[in-house]
Amino acid sequence: MEFGTFLVQCLNALQYGLLLFLVASGLTLIFGIMGVINLAHGSFYMIGAYMAYALAPFVAKWTGGGFFATLAVGLVLSVALGYVLEWAFYSFLYEREHLQQVLMTYGLILVFEELRSILVGNDVHGVKAPDWLAGSIPLGDLMTYPVYRLFISAVCVALAAAMYLVLTRTRLGMMIRAGATNREMVQSLGVDIQFLYRVVFAAGVALAVFAGMIAAPVSSVYPGMGSQVLIICFVVVVIGGIGSVRGALFAALLIGLVDTFGKVVFPHAAGVLVYVMMALILLWKPDGLFKAG
Amino acid sequence: MDFRGGRNVVLAAAVVAALALFPLVAGKFGIDLVTKIMIFAVLALSLELLVGQTGLVCFGQAAFFGIGAYAVVLATPQYQAVSIFWLAPLAVACATLYALFVGSLVLRTRGVYFIMVTLAFAQMAYYVFHDTPLGRGTDGVYLYVRPSAEVFGVTLVNFEKPVSLYYVALAALVATFAFLAVLLRSRFGRALAGIKANEQRMRAAGFSTYAYKLAAFTLSGAIAGFAGVLFAVKDAFVNPELLAWHLSGSLLVMIILGGLGRLWGAVIGAFAYALLQEFFQSQAIFGDLAKHWLLGLGLTIIAMVALLPEGLAGLPAAVSRRLARKPARSAGGNA
Predict the structure, then answer these.
(1) Which terminus has fewer CB within 10 Å in chain A: N or C?
(2) Mean pLDDT, residues B29-52
(3) Which residues of chain A have pLDDT under 70?
(4) What value of ipTM does the predicted structure carry?
(5) How many CB pairs under 8 A join A and B?
(6) B165: distance to nearest CA of chain A, Å?
(7) pTM over 0.90
(8) Structural domain boundaries in chain B
(9) How far does B309 lie from chain A, in Å, by closest CA?
(10) Distance CA B122, CA B116 (A)
């Protein structure tokens, strides 16, 4: 492999891994803190991508703004969506068995997919990146790399850093970590745990929706994109250790590397490689690499 | 455990008799539909063994089903019928081996890990048939010649005839049900029930719970593979969607819909699910929305989880509990 190609693939792997991290971190936080296995998390990613596509004309009409105005509107909507969903569907799942959580969230996936099909249709759509990010930068003599992908990576890194700061340095983060360890104790200390859960859930939804929105110009928008992301995110969470944000970051980057280079080296077996890696890691550490902490 | 009372035996015999007489009154569509439902009932029973009886929530049952179905099609040469008596064991063996491999890994995990990892391994099998040359592409593969069932030159069953297929599926369902009912009353079945109730205590009592769980997982995979064989012979066509996680999800819905912990719950669930599907797909009732039948199904699932956690099989108990509670409450109000 030439050095230029190698560099491009490395950047692709990094961008894919970071994007996965945004989705998977919400999934692992929701599980680690609320104890709910959320199959509908992939649907939030799908909703985000479709928002980037379908909201753009409306946002352009109201504000005349482009991509970033759409992002902002989408974020506000996603927080509201997360808040309402938690209240309506998830709040009574905490005490139920995992099996019931699986069913309920599976039902939600079906509902979201069909609503998507009714509202937007089943066609594949492209989303345009903003003009000033649409170019490419030269890498070496022959290769170029799209600026927009670098932008995705940069945004993801910034968000990961922000998440780290919130979780470790703020009072809210302290309550979240405490809530994950011992729910009753936190409650008896006077923290409104219900509100805390709602905030975490809304944040998880917003992260997945945001990931879908910024990924839309690269991946295009298509039916079934949600379940694809969901299952890879499960692999991320299993490898990283449930509830561990650090583990999710590490596992997401690892999967980005294995998947991207797998497609180059073994084009036929690329889909399988990630799962083989998961099997090996499970043999070695059944609880994932970073146990929740 | 389902045949304790004489009443249950009579009821089961009546259901089997009704199913056996059904082709006499039904048209082609009805026979085809009920054949399909009975095959899915066998598959649902395999999952009930894991989820309802052992307490292992497997979200990847479709993989074993799909592997069984694919093995039948891929092992048949293009223009030559192969005897079912070696085709079926071969296909079941493939599914069993994969279940053994997956089970030995996933049973190292528990709880929510188990759910995610079984899903991930099913997805791995999906990609093998979806992407690699082995699966011959995303569009699926046709079975040009259905298998033969000859013993010493006498044809026992003609798989080309829908009615024969119907009775084969019925026999398979009855056999699977009876086998599991006997198995669950054996020492092995009691051990599984013990693991479901309290695994730690079973270990303390000296049971090697890992071996029991692995045996249950492998057996469940074998039965699912057997259902896959039936499906491939019936449809004469397989595609990667047979292994997709939507089927695994639907199966979980079936056994919950029927009610966990009871074998006949899985059978009721398979029928109820198919009827729900026919209902929501009916153009006469829903018009243009019939295309989006999964919306109705999704809402039904959500309502079911919220209102009927014990499934349809728990419905009589739930109703009688409510009826019993009401007079008591009003009596208390009068006093």
Answers:
(1) N
(2) 94
(3) 1, 64-65, 140, 291-293
(4) 0.83
(5) 123
(6) 32
(7) no
(8) 6-245
(9) 8
(10) 10
